[in-house]
Amino acid sequence: MPVQLKGRSLLTLLDYSAEEIRYLLDLAHDLKRKKRAGIPGGLLRGRNVVLIFEKTSTRTRCAFETACWDEGGNATFLSNSQMGKKESLEDTAKVLGRFYDGIEFRGFAQQTAEELARFSGVPVWNGLTDLYHPTQALADLMTLEEHAGKPLADCKLAYVGDARNNVANSLMIICAKLGLRYAAVCPKELRPEAGLLKDMTRLAKANGGSVTVSSGLDAVKGADAVYTDVWVSMGEEARFAERIRLLRGYAVTPEVMEKTGNPRAIFLHCLPAFHDLNTATGAEVHEQYGLSEMEVSDAVFRSAQSHVFDQAENRLHTIKAVMVATIGRQ
Ligand code: CP
Ligand code: NVA
């Protein structure tokens, strides 16, 4: 049966089959080729979308807006709504459902995204919650696919760092669905949540892949991609001292890239990244803890192995694919 995603939300990749994820990746590659060739798009003509951000963003907001405009749609960035202050989430969702064809939500609780979908009656796309970052994981695998030179199912992705955060959860899910080998490398305190880990381990096995968790960096051996993310996610700022204590041995350095034993291995990071002192937070951490880089060393970040800006660009193409597939005209 052909894949049909019209009217669907993307709240978590747990709700999507391998075929549906494959369809989104193929569509993203097509849309990227079309944009590169300068072919004007019109697949979102007549469509209006609204973007709600409880947390800050550069890539996700810009990707949703430019993706929408590229395809002839309209986007409203809603930064100071009544939602949750003078108007309930339910009432706000019902109003937005009358105006818009789709809603992007970035925020804290996964439940907020779920309730927006329930009450608005239009597709809701999760632009990051405390639990998941599904549009990021699509861009990540698109990038790996472009550079690996082999099918995704033959790839190993090693995630080093806070393996129970939103980015890591979505990566583990997408790898398990598509049958990759996913290796989380983290201290025992930051292992993936037990229930999700158990389910994804079983799913990966059924799909010809694997999910493993190790505390030793040797587990990156054989990786086609080494991935890391910030040590302290948005909303967890009080945990800097604890995370630095737990994770300072897990920075992705040139030695960690060497440990893959694979000179073709790429480095990935969802961004933003703390790889130098050119950020206010980086400078504060330097002053308090003496670190001049955190989850990735500047040398790796700027190396030829690093594809973080291809990955950032692919947020645009994959988010466009999600909107075209769920509310587009094709
Ligand atoms: N990777 C990512 O989601 O970036 P932003 O926080 O800038 O949207
Ligand atoms: N884990 C990070 C991802 C940022 C894109 C956070 O939630 O802050």
Structure write-up:
With 330 residues, the chain is of the alpha/beta class. The chain contains 12 helices and 9 strands. The chain has helices at 18-36, 59-70, 89-99, 110-120, 134-148, 166-178, 194-206, 240-247, 254-259, 280-289, 298-301, 308-327, and strands at 48-53, 74-78, 102-106, 124-126, 156-160, 181-185, 210-214, 225-228, 266-269. The strands form 2 sheets. It has a 5-stranded parallel sheet with strand order 7-6-5-8-9. Strand 6 (181-185), helix 7 (194-206) and strand 7 form a beta-alpha-beta unit. Helix 1 crosses helix 12 (308-327). Bound molecules: phosphoric acid mono(formamide)ester and norvaline (NVA). The site of norvaline has 9 residues, from helix 6. Phosphoric acid mono(formamide)ester is lined by residues 57-60, 128, 136, 270-271.
Gist?
The protein has helices spanning 18-36, 59-70, 89-99, 110-120, 134-148, 166-178, 194-206, 240-247, 254-259, 280-289, 298-301, 308-327, and strands spanning 48-53, 74-78, 102-106, 124-126, 156-160, 181-185, 210-214, 225-228, 266-269.
Q: Topology, please?
A:
Blueprint: H1 18-36, E1 48-53, H2 59-70, E2 74-78, H3 89-99, E3 102-106, H4 110-120, E4 124-126, H5 134-148, E5 156-160, H6 166-178, E6 181-185, H7 194-206, E7 210-214, E8 225-228, H8 240-247, H9 254-259, E9 266-269, H10 280-289, H11 298-301, H12 308-327
Parallel strand pairs: 1-2, 1-3, 3-4, 5-6, 5-8, 6-7, 8-9
Bound molecules: phosphoric acid mono(formamide)ester (CP) and norvaline.
